[in-house]
Amino acid sequence: MQIQGSGALVTGGASGLGLAAARALAASGAHVTLLDLPGSAGAALAAELGGAFAPGDVTSPEDAAAAVALADTEAPLRILVNCAGIAPPAKVLDRDGEPNALADFERIIRINLVGTYNVLSQASAVIARQERTASGDRGVIVNTASVAAFDGQIGQPAYAASKGGVHAMTLPVARELARHGIRVCTIAPGIMETPMLAGLPEAAQASLGEQVPYPARLGRPDEYAGLVTHIVENGYLNGETIRLDGAIRMAPK
Asked: Beta strands 182-189 and 31-36: pairing type?
């Protein structure tokens, strides 16, 4: 499917992987709308990209519907990239051997998994009503999981569960939306250069990169963005989760 002339909605688009995807889509001719928190730099970045900013919470059906409607105004919405997410560490038991707060687990699941589903459902309803392209497509949805979905480490039960859920729903959603001409894929990044890692000392970041078999470095946001654009343009990619990780398999800790 052609990116040129399409409307694209990117959640978590004001930073990290989401911003990289938004930049790549805009450079390829899409009209990009960023959905991110009101306190983010979304407005300034959207102006820079010649797009729009939809301040909101991905877990809110009202905010998601408003963002989808905005993304469909300047160009027909055909592309959704779900990048919004959080990754705070939280073990099952605390240092005293007591259960950690259930609310912490629920928050991660709600943002990473429920938020992805919420925006996906709102966007797919609009994409399904678009005119088909010459190739029969109506749109493409790209979700973001993590290698933690498969190799979750100690301290990641909630994060791994949330990303495992994103991976697990990829195929059933792709199968359902096939009749509407909508493809659905998921990217599972490894250790990437994102704001989540930016606070670590350089030595720690280098150490993480050395754990990657090849190339022995952190993944770059532009590499994630390049895969997003490829998924959109490659009409036979559907129902698949693609690891983008330099062949790393995460150790227990």
From this structure: unpaired
Give the C-alpha separation, 77 to 83, whole Å.
17
Number of folded domains that form the chain: 1
Task: Classify residue 172 as exposed, middle or buried by CB count within 10 Å of its CB (0-12, 13-18, 19+).
Answer: exposed
**pLDDT tens-digit profile of 135-192?**
999 999 999 999 999 999 999 999 999 999 999 999 999 999 999 999 999 999 999 9
Flag whether 198 is in a domain. yes
Q: Distance between CA 23 and CA 239 in Å, rounded? A: 25
* Interval 17-55: pLDDT, tens: 999 999 999 999 999 999 999 999 999 999 999 999 999
- Does 190 reside within a domain? yes
Residues known to be catalytic:
159
Name the residue among 130, 137, 141 with its Cα closest to residue 171: 141
Residue 74 is given by DSSP the state S
